[in-house]
Amino acid sequence: MSDEDGHGAIILVVEDVEETRDGIEVLLKVDGYRLIPARHEEDAVERARRERPDLILVSSGGRGTDVIATAGRIRKRAELGEETPVVIFCLQTIPQGAEVEIGKNVHITRPDNFDQLRGFLRRLLHDLPPRP
Fold first, then answer.
1. C-alpha pair distances (Å), 75 with each of 27, 52, 68, 124
2. What pTM, to 2 d.p., does this model score?
């Protein structure tokens, strides 16, 4: 990560709908993040191994348990370790505006607006230990 407020951090964005992925990328680039787009699990694992992201953001409207399992496999298969936060964005199964930690550094969020997501990502990236 390049500085203490998360700017310049590398975020792997996993989303199978191109328009949604592009929209997330545009909004997060404004905050100075470097983004790695991925369409699906295999693509995400390959890119994560190469780029070593600071955070994985999985955006999906799929079943919660499937998305959570996929996100966990991406982190594990890419050998990123539990210190790399995983954020699952916009599952319908949690209350709007909520953030829930469901495992070691795995979070579900359904923000009321994009500024809440940006603030949540900033907090997670700020709390990460410096890279070796």
1. 24, 10, 11, 16
2. 0.82
